[in-house]
Write a structure and sequence with these properties.
The protein has a single domain, classed as K homology (KH) domain (GMP Synthetase, Chain A, domain 3, 2-Layer Sandwich). 42% of the residues lie in helices and 27% in strands. The protein contains four helices and six strands. Strands 1-2-3 form a three-stranded antiparallel sheet, with no helix packed on it. Helix 1 packs across helix 3. The longest helix is centred in the first third of the chain and has 23 residues. 13% of the residues are buried.
């Protein structure tokens, strides 16, 4: 294992192939870029079609080889949040295409997207209701 310009590179013995792992700062920049662009995509593409539904991208985690991204979504305005996240997941290829059009000058390869429901806001609201039952 050796480093070069802030990037850690692992060299594998089989087939002389190299696996490049990015350092934390670069991954953070990629996570922020994808968070911003995916948020814009959901606001501009989905909002006009379903005005009562609001989807917020709360967090993005990209793997170190930039091939996969876990996208955490908060869904508001509908009771069946899991179903909405599943429908978004079924349209992951189309969303990836829109994302690719937006970031084509910043990234060579667009990561494969996996959408996950972020229920942390519901958890916080539940704790708040338990702490303050009179509200």
């Amino acid at each position: 294992m050796y480093g070069c310009h802030g990037v850690t590179v692992l060299q594998l013995q089989t087939n002389n192939c190299k696996l490049i792992k990015m350092d934390g700062k670069r991954l953070e920049k990629v996570n922020k870029l994808l968070l911003k662009e995916l948020g814009d995509i959901f606001q501009q593409e989905l909002k006009p079609k379903v005005p009562s539904l609001m989807i917020t991208v709360t967090r993005v985690n990209v793997t170190s080889d930039l091939s996969y991204a876990r996208v955490y979504l908060s869904v508001f305005g509908v009771e069946e949040k899991k179903k909405v996240v599943e429908e978004v997941g079924q349209n992951a290829k189309a969303i990836r295409g829109l994302l690719g059009n937006r970031i084509r000058h910043q990234m060579r390869v667009v990561p494969e997207l996996r959408f996950i429901e972020d229920d942390s806001l519901d958890y916080i609201e539940n704790i708040d209701n338990l702490l303050h039952p009179d509200k």
